[in-house]
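Feature request, filed as a ticket because there's no other form

It would be nice if the structure record came with a short human-readable summary line next to the tokens. Right now we just get the raw output. Example of a typical job, pasted below so the devs can see what we mean:
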Amino acid sequence: MLRTLTVVLLTAVLVACNQRQQETPEGSAPPIDGPETSAPVRAELPPVDAALLAAPNSAFTAFEPSEVGVFGAPDVMQALDPLLGPEVVEGSTVHLSVRETGDEAIADIVRSGLQDDSVSAGHVRIEFRRETEGWYPTNAYRRSQCSRGGEAGQWTSGLCP
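Raw output as currently delivered:
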């Protein structure tokens, strides 16, 4: 359990270390970089399995998107950069699916091959809404697939043993 929490916190710290510090008034969204900022070229990631996409949000633990460095951006992929950068993806297998419907989008990221003996995979879901300035995260959810104990091979919103 403690190891899983440590991995989650370490990932959040690594992501935060790569983020620019932005001062924003309390209650307001951080400014969006202008069009001069372009997303880095990234290899095409395989899609998330349809069965995982079908999981209801109630099967996850909710958290703030800012905990993993996801803020508003001109497009969803730029907003997801902190979760898909080479330093975060290296050494693991990552699947990505982004479903966009009108002014709403849902991104699912599944990472397996983690350096953790209690967690075999992690699944993060982030919901976005489009505004005139770009795409803003509205909700975020996470869950883990345990690699040992009675929950081995099962997805859980709690901690793995």
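Something like this underneath would help us a lot:
Residues 107 and 116 are 24 Å apart (CA to CA).
The helical segments are 2-17, 50-53, 76-84, 86-89.
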